[in-house]
Amino acid sequence: MDAIIDNLDLYLQGFGTTLLLLVVSGLAALVIGTLVAAMRISPVPSLRWFATVYTEFVRNTPLTLVLFFCIFVLPLLDVRLDFVTRAIIGLSVYTSPFVAEALRSGVNGVPVGQAEAARSVGFGFRQTVGLIVLPQAFRMTIPPLINVFIALTKNTSVAGGFFVVELFAVGRTVANARGDQVIPVLLGVAAFYLLITVPLGLLAARLERRWVVQR
Amino acid sequence: MTNVLFDAPGPVARRNSLIASIAGGIAILGGLAWIFFTLNAPRGELPGYFDPSRWDIFADPTVWRYIFVAGVWGTLRAALTAAVFAVALGIVFSLLRSAQTAWIRIPTAIVLEFVRGMPVLLMMLFILLVLNTGSFWAVVAALTLYNGALIGEALRAGLASLPRGQREAGLSLGMRPMQSKMLIEFPQAFRQMLPIIIAQLVVLLKDTSLGYIVGYVELLRVNMNQLASFYGNYYLFSFFIVTLVLYLAMNLALSWFARWVAKRTARRTGQKPPNPDEEDEELLKGVAKANAEARQMGQGSV
């Protein structure tokens, strides 16, 4: 136990970096994901096609490979950024198709009858989408989006394998230094991750429960 | 959905859409061409990344043999072993999680929550350092535990989505609850959830690459570490592209298989199976429904 207390400032530093990775790449993924989702449902075929290929391509590439690209291959292309920024780029790109799918499934989850009803009382495209479809789609996308962010939280640990000093990397260093206390050291790291993921998971489950019952 | 939102496009709208499509297509192709030419531009003394001299090692069959024997097989070996164990563990988890007795159900729920909230990579490191298993079993065990938990939740959602009458019919024929569960409900739940299970196996296959970080010899390590340092940085980019293509080939094949199974299930049962492309959403929905069901039956869920 004293291994954690002795290194508490290291832990907190690592936790700070993890939070930084989570928040910044989460926001960036939200932006890219929204763009991709918009392209995916747009009436322009070539954009739709591009968004589909992008989603398929990125979703089937392992995160380790994406981060490997950002850390080791980007310097070959004369991109000079620090490790944290490059890790954020990798995590945002990797997460963006999952955000796009969550948004798209939310829009598709609104029963078609809702849009048909709006059209049949004379609403135009703007009114149908803005007043009827999106408000319903929005709340249905919240639980899946929270799930995407939970996955992102866990995925930030992969950046720890690529020179970014966040929780996982801290845990590995401390565990190597204190071979006698590996179990408490790693459980301490796990506790920090659970501190983010479990409350988010409970929130998603609670929201989903409420809306499943309503439907 | 999209076709309800608009009126059917008339000639002007159709022409505008065509023009926008062509403009978008040109923009995308331009972007791709820009990437290609940037990569292909000479780097100081050295030629660009698509220069034949950077790819000549791939004419050597021993390179390919090494990539496949050590790399691809290393990845597939871990993925196959973990997949078998994960499905088995998922079955056990789903049975324990939907058990009648609270002191089995509630601890299982807590364990599942714990496993699902932890990074797989941390589990790998934990198993590697604490149990001293060697990197292969560390990778396999962590992947089994994590994916077993998710497959377990998917199966539980499948069990809960069955019509109540299935279980009642089994019980009324004099089957014990366990018999009805194993012989009547489980086979149906498994078939219904098969697309989701395969989609989860894609995640598992992708996650074998985390073995790179804990020192397991798989595709990424073989190509990007062993071969790239043997042949030198000159070939790093070429090895990266080959690795990417191999991973995409494996994962896309499995993803398409999941879709095919979903379509086939839909044809055979006439019901709409869960969409493997929206695995996350389907799981969330399924689990919420299963919990609601359990609450109705008077078994509180955690």
UniProtKB/TrEMBL annotation, chain A:
It is a multi-pass membrane protein. It is found in: Cell membrane. Its main location: membrane. One of its GO terms (molecular function) is transmembrane transporter activity. This is ABC transporter permease subunit. Belongs to the binding-protein-dependent transport system permease family. HisMQ subfamily. Signal peptide: none annotated. Keywords: Amino-acid transport, Cell membrane, Membrane, Transmembrane, Transmembrane helix, Transport. GO terms for biological process: amino acid transport. NCBIfam families: HEQRo_perm_3TM (TIGR01726). GO terms for cellular component: ATP-binding cassette (ABC) transporter complex. The chain crosses the membrane at residues 12-37, 57-77, 145-170, 182-205. Coiled coil: none annotated. Residues 15-204 form the ABC transmembrane type-1 domain. CDD domains: TM_PBP2. It comes from Agromyces bracchium.
TrEMBL record, chain B:
It holds the Pfam family BPD_transp_1. Keywords: Membrane, Transmembrane, Transmembrane helix, Transport. GO terms for cellular component: plasma membrane. Residues 72-258 form the ABC transmembrane type-1 domain. GO terms for biological process: amino acid transport; transmembrane transport. Gene3D superfamilies: MetI-like. The chain crosses the membrane at residues 18-37, 63-96, 108-130, 136-155, 193-214, 234-258. It is a multi-pass membrane protein. It is found in: Cell membrane; Membrane. It comes from the Bacteria. Belongs to the binding-protein-dependent transport system permease family. This is ABC transporter permease subunit. It comes from Agromyces luteolus.
